[in-house]
Amino acid sequence: MNRLADEFLVKTAPNPDLWLSSVDALMLDLVKDQEQSKNTISSLAHEAAAYHLQLGGHRIRARLALAACASLGVNETNAIALAAAVELLHNASLVHDDLQDEDLIRRGSKAVWAQFGSNVAICTGDLMLSAAYAAIAQTQCYALIPELLKQMHAKVSYAIKGQCSDLLLDSKTLNLKTYEDIAFSKSGALLSLPIELALIAGGKKEWITQARQAADDFAVAYQIYDDIEDFEKDSSGDCIHHANILLVLQSDPSGMNSYQAALDLGLLKLEQATNACNHLPMNSGYLLAELAQKLSHQLKATTPISSDIARQ
Amino acid sequence: MNRLADEFLVKTAPNPDLWLSSVDALMLDLVKDQEQSKNTISSLAHEAAAYHLQLGGHRIRARLALAACASLGVNETNAIALAAAVELLHNASLVHDDLQDEDLIRRGSKAVWAQFGSNVAICTGDLMLSAAYAAIAQTQCYALIPELLKQMHAKVSYAIKGQCSDLLLDSKTLNLKTYEDIAFSKSGALLSLPIELALIAGGKKEWITQARQAADDFAVAYQIYDDIEDFEKDSSGDCIHHANILLVLQSDPSGMNSYQAALDLGLLKLEQATNACNHLPMNSGYLLAELAQKLSHQLKATTPISSDIARQ
């Protein structure tokens, strides 16, 4: 397809954010108790899943899928199904992560495990993970479904690897390579998946590696931003298992300023992510490029941490 | 199809147990860490999933799927994929159930949570649940995949409802109707699914309700058998949340012998299950009918518990 056709398609693409309410409706429908009339028992897991989804959130992964689908000419029904699938996967992981990390608060309210108990939280995450795959049944591209399923499982498997590594981390021996590998798997996997599924549905799967590159770089930069913001908490000793980039870079023997090094690395990653996004076909990575731009500003606006403080 | 053709097909069907080793190989492949070469971090969840699968088990659900597929003329590739899907779902539920119930031993070895820790067990169950859906990507019946996915999610959702109810049960107010509803959802759902998926793949989905009826009745009978065997443990007070049928029937004001009543109910359910199986098309329920027959003998061979003891 030539450049002109590309631009025509992009300009006439619908505003994908208009589809977001349909994504939310589909997600809620997929975690509903379908056996209510036939069975006397009640299910707290179904209630907890609806509770969690209704806490809101930015729906970044759903929006990445919708934006890429709209750019690639994937139709509304398919776009909504793919967006619901990735957003359900992400939220399933949040429900289980909060339990594992003992994080009490999610989106300003009690996390599922804190509100409903640990056992219900396990069931709730399971329900949402299963619902994510059921969302794929709503797509109309039958011949592509096997590929969509395989890609989803590959990313879930990779994200689980990241979560496990993060939970079992020995922060004393952590180096930059492992730090990046954890960010790739724990965050990059489910940030890349929305664009990857859209590329498969749009018949452009040869670009998957490029999408993954963009999401991986973005994920590392996001983790760096998060670490700079959380530095005080992470270095206080309350959070011994957490690997903060400033603590990782402190172990560098060159004695460089770890805040400046982290900032430079984050900005470099975002530049790389933006480049990779801009090379994706039919502008399908435009939303991730926008998010990278925004994160770049946020990174630059962080309060510098002096070497002395970072070395405490 | 006339009766003769039915019998011809059944007699020439392959021995489905010969496919079991391929099911095991597929399951192990689907929980393998595919990112090993690209990523320095290791994943205990993948190791734990292989550990759990290699503990063995009867593979009842895989065998039910294989038997039904062979009877219905579903080809080997599809049969193996469907069998792996249901067996992975069942094993995912075991990994999470053992953690929730704090059961230390599974198949004579340490349960995953006892061997690898609670957090890894959560990740392991998630990995296996995701792998179950990835197994569906191995089928060759593309147009039927949406229906297979929907049916899987419906049963996972129902099984989760059963697990939640069981965990949160108030055994004091439990009646026979709720007891049966929990058995339907907690056990019946994943016993019915193998035959249901085979019926969908074999183009006979109009028989799904019949398959469900058979599996539900079998599930209640199995639960009754289990309860009679476990009566001493369940009534000792160590297990206050467990709803044993003998304790449920004790609350019946007629003062009948609860062991005899449980036995009669179990045998009736097995008779109903066998009848329902025998009406399934192309003898696709033959293995469940055989299991019902076997369970009937086991039930009759249980040691009677006198009313006095059951009323302690």
UniProtKB/TrEMBL annotation, chains A, B:
It comes from the Bacteria. InterPro entries: Isoprenoid_synthase_dom_sf, Polyprenyl_synt, Polyprenyl_synt_CS. GO terms for biological process: isoprenoid biosynthetic process. Keywords: Magnesium, Metal-binding, Transferase. Coiled coil: none annotated. Pfam families: polyprenyl_synt (PF00348). Its cofactor is Mg(2+). GO terms for molecular function: metal ion binding; prenyltransferase activity. Belongs to the FPP/GGPP synthase family. PANTHER family: GERANYLGERANYL PYROPHOSPHATE SYNTHASE (PTHR12001), SHORT CHAIN ISOPRENYL DIPHOSPHATE SYNTHASE (PTHR12001:SF85). This is Polyprenyl synthetase. It comes from Polynucleobacter brandtiae.
